[in-house]
What does this fold into?
Amino acid sequence: MKSLEFFSRVSIGRYIERDSAVHRLSPAAKYLWLFAFILPVSALRSAAAMALLAAAAIAATALAKIRPGYLLRGFVPVLPLVGVAAAFQIIFTSPADSSAVLLAVGPVSVTLREAAAVGGMALRFLAMMLGLGLFTSVITEGDTARGIEDVLSPLAKLGFPAHQLALAVAVAFRFIPIVAGELEGIVKAQAARGADFGTGKGGPLRRARAYLPLVVPVTIRALERAEALAEAMEARCYEARGRTRYVEAEGGRYDLVARLAAIAFAGTSLALGAVLPW
Amino acid sequence: MEHSSVKKIVTAGALGAVSVVLAVTPLGFLPWFGGASLTIMHIPVIVTAVLEGPVAGTVVGLIFGVTSLVKAAVAPVGPLDPLFTNPLVSVLPRLLIGVVAWAVYKLFRGKLTPLAAGAAGAVGGFANTVLVLTMLGLSAADQIAGVLGLETAAIPAFLAGIALSNGLVEAAAAAVFTGAVVSAWKGIAEGGASKLSKEA
It folds into this structure.
């Protein structure tokens, strides 16, 4: 029955409450920093730049008073990937590789280019884990939705439905526990009738068919709830235009500086990544 | 059926939640031959696109893509998860599923709903597989080659093989699930009776 308890161990992007300079940023500033970080991490190829970006992420994590080890607890399971990729890079030396040999054991040699390729890959993943993990640790659910609207507000002036998108995300956050609870209820009800999920015998086709009485009711229930919620909102004359907020994001000079710093950070990283040799 | 914008927004949010829940539980993956698993997490994207149009479908695709990006970075499970920390692989392809599925559904002009929804599911599911694999091939061919011990030059053929084998099965699964959900929902909408509305 252990397989039926889905939601006790889910720890994806849990908010960690701390009193830190990072937590005090407005949601829009947090989003700007996230974009300013992800852009160079996914665009650059240089291993040295990845190392600097990962170091920057660790510094930000310390500033947020969160242990980097907590964000990196998922790193160990993927180490085999890095190991295999490293072995492959080292064994098959590209004929075009004329960089300095760092280490040679018999016929196998590690060149600078190979080391940079493997290190760059591992560091990129490390930086991404730190960046996304930190972002989800310092932003609350409500701020995640509000921040989307704030950060897209320049686009909203051009007609982009920023508020609508933020509302959809807010509804999604609100619905996650409901859908999860219903899914658990339906799985248990089906299990009580003898259905078998995951552990079951029988061919894949039979197991796939067991999911039909699970996915259909969950989706239908979500659609029904959405319809009820939409009717309730319309009955109260909800309109997506010209809305005010109960909680206004506090701007201030500190926040403005942080936003400008995010833009400067992205620019500097991209420029640095283009200059660094490996 | 033209729906109000509130209905579209709320439905996108609700089915986005379904997609997130499927993504963070083992139920999002169907066990399949040889340890490979099929994903059904894109079903809510296709269902939303069919019921509420391409924009709502794209919103659910965005929620699904961002969830898989965050999941790959925060709680990676498989050897390929590090590659999904690239938003070009995990988010961009998922934005297009809804548009493709909606376009296919529209081709039927409101006739033969179960068949149209099934076709939309098949094409949407196949589009997901093909687009994700294409982005993987473009962005990380070297790393995949490293994991599998193949030459980098063999990667396009290898990915095309997966796209055909896994993609066709996923397309069939998506067709069955989408067809079942959409026809059940249309049945309820036309019959006017819903269990939830009686409860409330």
Q: What stands out?
A: The beta strands of chain B are 29-31, 37-39. The longest helix of chain B spans residues 155-191. The first strand of chain B starts at residue 29 and ends at 31.
